[in-house]
Amino acid sequence: VHGLAVNVAARLEGLADPGTVVVSDEVRALAEGPFELGAKPAQAVKGVSEPLQPYRVHGERPLPRAPRPGS
């Protein structure tokens, strides 16, 4: 498997601490609603022309509670 996406995924995996998940800015834009994310320092990585902005996934956001009928 080749390409920029595979390279970015491998580099992000290398930036993650054991037991954590790190995602790219593109994934952050899709996941920031249902997930709590925190920015990590931007990193220059081999094979990518611009520094990567990694985000650590802290976990799921709690779902909003629906109002009870009659409340």
Question: How is this structure best summarized?
Answer:
With 71 residues, the chain is an alpha+beta fold. Helices cover 27% and strands 20% of the residues.
Describe what this molecule looks like in 3D.
The longest helix has 12 residues, at 4-15. This protein has helices at residues 4-15, 25-31, and strands spanning 21-23, 35-39, 55-60. The protein is α+β, with helices and mostly antiparallel strands and 71 residues long. It has a three-stranded antiparallel beta sheet. The protein starts with a helix and ends in an 11-residue tail after the last strand.
Low-confidence segments: none
Helix/strand/pairing class, anyone? alpha+beta
Helix content: 25-40%
What is the overall number of helices? Answer: 2
Please describe the biggest sheet, giving its number of strands, its sense, and whether it closes into a barrel: 3 strands, antiparallel
SSE order, as H and E? HEHEE
Strand neighbour order, sheet with most strands: 1-3-2
| Number of strand segments | 3
**C-alpha end-to-end distance:** 55 Å
Beta-strand content bin: 15-25%
Question: Over the alpha carbons, how many angstroms does the gyration radius reach?
Answer: 16 Å
Task: Give the CA-based shape.
Answer: elongated
Mean pLDDT: 90
